[in-house]
Write a structure and sequence with these properties.
Length: 497
């Protein structure tokens, strides 16, 4: 599809949320939008590529939590390399060489989660200061869309309506009486000479029970996708009128006061804070119905519905052997899962936790996770593999007074110059070449060589090559927690002092 309105078209990706219902794969420190659940790319990467079919990458803004900032930047960096302007196969057209820098600079990291309206307001204000006439689309980072052409057409239609100072939503034509979504009741059609039919919004309805959901579908209601399109100046005017406290706070944000100011925001959704207010007052709020194969991938059952199935209607991922098993999702990230005689079951195995439940009960996983969190909070927050801006580490074993890790360092990356008060470390190079600074001495280690980092020695691990570096680290000491670290110099701005 040919892109239009390139100069004024912008997009905001909301990359927050914990994806609790997809536990144990999705966890607080690596939620579902940062995972590859339906292909080779993560949901965030799929969303970014979809949006840059219509906008310039430099017009893409992403709002995430501070804890996910480096992972989000790393995933976006894989999509927009510095030499993109010279890539003749790109469908993004001729772009400047600083595309990557623009995309990464437009990643806004919230110091705390305050729901969608403050996040949208903060990003919109950044765009508004550059271009008050900007047409902004707001999209979640964790949705799947099968018919991207239908999506792009609906987005462009929404922009046409937004030009007339409407707040516009994309409403999904339902294919079933789902109880997991909110609904939009469309009112009379608007005669705005748009490419697709557009309707005034009569009201929003929260997630219904099954009987109500069927009534809504029969009456022509639409699923609320949470996708919005508006003009920057129109949004700021609406915000000033209906949420003046948020308006004043967002206009006062600076890099120096971000944390203190953000903490003052109320936790308020875009639906409650603006959309429903406009609908109740019959103001300029419209919806574009669209059928685009949409799913929010919010549960394991929705993952099952989207994946290809074997002749027994099973979805499998990883090493799986099934015997007389049908209508089930069997997903393993590590090791073999073998099943006999299961029907309508979900099994998800990770290195440190396994979920087994009836497929009809996947909406209840959120309650289960609360129980797990009360007993073992680490199992809901972090994976054994933890991603960092320089690469990743995997905890292989941990006991009192020792921990064993596998550390992967990306080409050209380096860890901070750091020191530990309570532990020493032994490093063995498995593959690649490590450049090590240890107590003021710099040296290199190759495969099958090792070194010792004494407690309280300042040290740094770097990979100055173009190949990945893999080492095994053995920590020994009275305390081996991740918070026993003092950073003195860090390429990613994480210094302790």
């Amino acid at each position: 599809m040919t892109r239009t309105n390139l100069i004024n078209s912008y997009a905001i990706i909301l990359c927050g949320g914990s994806g609790t219902r997809l536990w144990p794969l999705s966890r607080t420190q690596r939620p579902k939008q940062l995972l590859a659940l339906n292909g080779q790319r993560t949901l965030l990467q799929q969303t970014a590529l979809r949006l840059t079919e219509h906008i310039a990458p430099a017009h893409l803004y992403t709002v995430t939590h501070q804890d996910h900032k480096f992972e989000v930047k790393g995933q976006l960096a894989e999509l927009y390399p510095q030499d993109l302007a010279n890539n003749s196969n790109s469908n993004l057209g001729k772009l400047p060489n600083n595309v990557l820098n623009n995309v990464l600079n437009n990643v806004l990291a919230e110091p705390c989660a305050k729901n969608t309206l403050p996040a949208i307001a903060w990003a919109t204000y950044q765009i508004y200061q550059q271009n008050a006439d900007a047409l902004i689309g707001v999209f979640a980072s964790d949705h799947a869309i099968d018919n991207e052409a239908a999506f792009l057409q609906a987005w462009q239609t929404a922009e046409e309506i937004a030009e007339k100072d409407y707040l516009v939503l994309l409403g999904i034509k339902p294919h079933e009486a789902a109880t997991g979504y909110g609904y939009i009741q469309p009112n009379q059609a608007l005669s705005l000479n748009s490419n697709l039919p557009v309707y005034q919004v009569a009201q929003f309805v929260e997630k219904p029970n099954q009987a109500k959901a069927q009534q809504f579908v029969d009456a022509g209601y639409l699923w609320n996708s949470g996708m919005f399109v508006f003009k920057a100046s129109t949004f700021m005017q609406m915000l000033a009128q209906y949420q003046p406290d948020i308006y004043q706070l967002v206009c006062a944000i600076t890099p120096d006061n971000l944390t203190a100011t953000y903490d003052q925001f109320p936790s308020l959704s875009m639906d409650y804070g603006l959309a429903e207010v406009l609908a109740q007052q019959a103001k300029k709020i419209a919806v574009v119905p669209v059928d685009m194969g949409w799913s929010d991938l919010g549960s394991w059952d929705s993952i099952y519905a989207k994946q290809a199935k074997d002749p027994q209607h099973n979805v499998t991922h990883g090493e799986v052997v099934n015997l007389d098993t049908s209508n089930s999702l069997i997903w393993t990230e590590t090791g073999l899962v073998a099943t006999i005689g299961l029907n309508n079951i979900v099994v998800v195995q990770t290195a440190d936790a396994t979920l087994i439940c009836d497929r009809s009960r996947t909406e209840d996983i959120k309650a289960l996770v609360a129980e797990v969190k009360a007993r073992q909070p680490a199992l809901t927050d972090i994976h054994q593999t933890v991603y960092r801006p320089w690469g990743s580490y995997t905890v292989l074993e941990e006991r009192p007074h020792f921990k064993i890790k596998r550390i992967m360092v990306n080409p050209g990356a380096k860890l901070s110059m750091q020191m530990h008060q309570h532990r020493s470390e032994h490093w063995v190079v498995v593959s690649g070449i490590a450049t090590i600074s240890n107590n003021g001495i710099e040296y290199q280690l190759q495969e099958n060589q090792s070194t010792y980092i004494s407690q309280t020695h300042q040290h740094r691990l770097a990979n100055n090559t173009e190949q990945p570096l893999s080492i095994i680290e053995v920590q020994c000491g009275s305390y081996v927690g991740e918070d026993d670290i003092l950073r003195f110099d860090d390429h990613y701005g994480r210094t302790t002092q």
